[in-house]
Amino acid sequence: MSKKINIAQPNNEIGNQKMSKLTLSREDAKIWGVCSGIAKWSNIDVSVVRILFAVGTIIGVGSLILIYILLAMILD
């Protein structure tokens, strides 16, 4: 017998933690709050996200700037 998996309503719980929605964070925002929103969503320090974004922007020849602007427009 195979176990049926309902994909219509995903399970938003991992262990005992409930997953949060990725949103902009206005509390710790420097520009639009994208990095602080990602940090809050992933439970890591906002400084780490900002450093990774800066390094990724330099290595990716600025492609992350476009992604940052798109996320700022898409996220609440």
From TrEMBL:
Protein's cellular compartments: Cell membrane
Keywords per UniProt: Cell membrane, Membrane, Transmembrane, Transmembrane helix
Bilayer topology: Single-pass membrane protein
Superkingdom: Bacteria
GO cellular component: plasma membrane
Coiled-coil region: none
Membrane-spanning segments: 51-75
InterPro entries in the record: Phageshock_PspC_N (IPR007168), PspC (IPR052027)
Residue intervals of the Phage shock protein PspC N-terminal domain: 21-75
Tagged with keyword Transmembrane: yes
PANTHER family listed in its UniProt record: PHAGE SHOCK PROTEIN C (PTHR33885:SF3)
This protein's name: Phage shock protein PspC N-terminal domain-containing protein
Native organism taxonomy: Bacteria, Pseudomonadati, Pseudomonadota, Alphaproteobacteria, Sphingomonadales
